[in-house]
Amino acid sequence: MAAVDPIRDARTLESLKDALREINEKYYVMFMIGIYSGLRVSDILKLQVRDVKYKDEVSIKEKKTGKIKRFPINSALKRVLDDYCEDRKLGEYLVPAKDKKPMMKPASRTSAYYALHKAAEQVGLEHIGTHTMRKTFGYWMYQQTDKNVAMLMKIFNHSDPSITLVYIGIQKERIDDAYRRLSFK
Asked: How is residue 74 annotated by DSSP?
């Protein structure tokens, strides 16, 4: 499996959101949840309307770790979710499977990947996958919290700061910057 990167540029991020919205609103909502929560795609896909509608906080049991994860719903995400969930029933999946009744089955990881990949191609992005959402969350959270790696370690359940920095692409960014600055003058 190829490594995926976070999205580091705000304009590119907005372009990808627009492309996902054109593909299907549910994938736009999936992406917004991913970049505002840091959830894994497996946890996003199992969310139902009842998990977010009329709520200010999400509480779920993570599929991978089995741990309970709670986080507040950011105001920007809240607006997206309120609009999206307005006419939906509480038992519906937020990201339902194609050609299924929304209450029956969530979309698959594969369909989520293909939607992200198609949108990424439209905006000229490479190295994009479902983990891009989680990595993007981490990258932007790191930049906007005075580089608080300890907090991100806790959010991601990482055991070492170096794991977190590699995960969100900071190590690669630092190495790339060092290459660019190298001079023998």
From this structure: P
Which residue among the candidates 26, 28, 36, 40 is catalytic per the annotation? 40
Q: Which residue has the tokens 């909502």?
A: 29
Q: Out of 17, 26, 134, 135, which one is annotated catalytic?
A: 134
What residues make up the domain containing 156? 10-181
Q: Is residue 21 part of a domain?
A: yes
Q: For residue 86, what is the domain's CATH number?
A: 1.10.443.10
Residues 6 or more apart whose CB falls under 8 angstroms from that of 97 comprise: 104, 105, 106, 107, 108, 111
Verify whether residue 131 is a known catalytic residue: yes
Active site residue 127: no
Percentage of the chain modeled with pLDDT above 90:
84
48-98: per-residue pLDDT in tens? 999 999 999 999 999 998 889 999 999 999 999 999 999 999 999 999 998
CB distance 119 to 7 below 8 Å: no
- pLDDT, tens digit, for every residue of 146-181? 999 999 999 998 999 999 999 998 988 888 988 999
Counting the structural domains of the chain, the total is 1
Examine the residue annotation and report whether 167 is marked as an active-site residue of this protein.
yes
pTM confidence score: 0.92
